[in-house]
Design brief:
The protein has 177 residues and is mainly α. Helix content is 66%, strand content 0%. Helix 1 packs across helix 4 and helix 4 crosses helix 6. The protein is globular and about 50 Å long.
Length: 177
């Protein structure tokens, strides 16, 4: 029975990591890039524009400030993650909740490390940053910053950009058939 439990936990952890990639894409595209949802013909609302800027646009403007890049712990983990975790505890068995939570948490820490490494060279070891995978993720993120911020929202994975049609046309990596 023990090996079955470990493989089940590993599967749930992988599901948590996969779930993280969807949350990462959703928050980056929908929540943090609210400027993409603005009606260009509507009258500007200074309060809404200030909220959008303070949410994420400041990162595109001040992207070399190390502590503006990482996920804010209080908002991400307590205010947003806490209620989701508690709800999961109520509706899912504990044998699913904890590995799923660990995969999700690992995904968020991995996101911070990869995102910081896209902007600063001293975060991850060279053997990670010299991989083809990392070079592709960094290139995609830099294209997001410098070429078109309405494309390539995935920092740790390009899967959701591929599914949602937000890959830059003609770039290397996952291609739509």
């Amino acid at each position: 029975m023990q090996p079955m439990l470990s493989s089940s936990a590993a599967c749930q952890g992988a599901r948590g990591r996969f779930f993280w990639t969807a949350i990462e894409y959703y928050f980056h595209r929908i929540v943090l890039h609210g400027e993409l949802n603005l009606d260009p013909n509507a009258e500007a609302d200074p309060d809404q524009l200030a909220k959008i800027f303070s949410a994420h646009t400041h990162h595109h403007v001040f992207m070399n400030q190390r502590f503006r890049i990482v996920l804010p712990l209080k908002e991400c983990y307590l205010h947003q993650g806490g209620p989701g975790f508690l709800l999961s505890c109520l509706v899912l068995p504990q044998s699913v909740v904890w590995p799923l939570f660990c995969g999700f948490l690992t995904g968020s820490v991995f996101y911070d490390a990869v995102h910081l490494s896209c902007h600063f060279d001293d975060v991850l070891p060279k053997w990670v940053t010299s991989t083809r995978w990392f070079e592709e993720r960094k290139s995609a993120h830099m294209r997001h910053h410098y070429r078109d911020n309405s494309k390539e929202f995935g920092v740790t994975a390009g899967l959701w950009d591929w599914i949602m049609g937000t890959l830059q046309a003609g770039e290397k990596g996952i291609q739509k058939p």
